[in-house]
Amino acid sequence: MKTNVITLDAKKAGDIELDDAIFGLETRKDILHRVVNWQLAKRRAGTHAVKFRSDISATGARVGNQKGGGTARHGPRSSNIFIGGGRAFGPIPRDHGYNLPKKIRKLGLKTALSTKAAAGKIIVLDNADLKEGKTKELVAKLEKLGLANALFLDGAEVNANFKQAIQNIPNVDVLPTQGANVYDILRRDTLVLTKAAVAKLEERLK
Q1: Tag placement on the chain: N or C end, fewer CB within 10 Å?
Q2: 161 and 145 in one domain?
């Protein structure tokens, strides 16, 4: 699959061949669903907690007499039926993450890239380097490119000035290639790859 390469100033800088084994797969919603759920499950803090009966400081004596009171024979005040008592079957701190086969994770990333390519939502840049980390300058360049909601993927490292300039722009993110993931690719409208990112992705996913 051949596509144009452009600069940050929206000028053509040649073309590049994208590997069909990575950017030309059919869309598999089931695979994308599995990988996104796996990613979001790992991100959950799992710190939710409640107090159970053993965690409540309350009297353990009977509430009233065993007989003659005209009410139920209640036990300790820490019971879950009383206000201020412990919860029954409440959440406890735990890890929500689970394992997903490496083949499925790899296929998920390929499918996400292919989905963007099929929708014409991939742009390849010559590079993502800026001389100064000025947000105003980068906003002007993004307007030329017609980008309002995008994810930039750079090579092994992101240019420091570019990273600084992009931080205050809403709905625009940047990641190094090793941080490429299905969730971030799908949540942004356009995927912008540098030539270095394309080379790294092809090396990683072959």
Answers
A1: C
A2: yes
